[in-house]
Design goal:
about 75% helix; about 0% strand; mainly alpha; about 130 residues
């Protein structure tokens, strides 16, 4: 009897954990899809930010933060985007995705930041042939 109760308790705990993970994963995927949708309206981009913030609940990954950064940049809110990016690289200074996203989003607006991102990407992948 005790074994069955224990088994049920473990199963319930596993279901709860998987539900939380699945919710965060779906929210992250939704935010990423919005980010990649070139035809997304400002309202859809705002909703993507909300979904990415939902994904951050109980999720230590920086993936939702990268989506938030990209969505804020798409909305032209670069002042809000910068602290999000800085938070990501502070937690994961070797995150190539973060540095790549920074390079893409600053290429025409901030040449110094663009060069800094390319330099960091080269440091992370020294076998690349082109240097900034």
């Amino acid at each position: 009897m005790i074994a069955r109760v224990s088994l049920v308790a473990v199963a319930v705990a596993a279901i709860v954990c998987m539900s939380i993970w699945l919710h965060g994963h779906n929210a992250t995927v939704s935010a990423d899809q919005t980010l990649l949708n070139r035809a997304a309206t400002p309202a859809q981009l705002e909703h993507g930010i909300k979904r990415a913030n939902d994904a951050k609940t109980l999720n230590p990954s920086t993936e939702p933060d990268l989506a938030i950064y990209g969505l804020l940049v798409r909305l032209g809110r670069t002042a809000e985007a910068r602290p999000v990016f800085e938070s990501v690289v502070r937690r994961e200074p070797d995150n190539r995705t973060a540095w790549s996203l920074l390079a893409v989003t600053t290429q025409s607006s901030d040449p110094a930041q663009f060069r800094r991102a390319l330099t960091r990407l080269h440091e992370l992948s020294p076998l690349t042939t082109r240097r900034p």
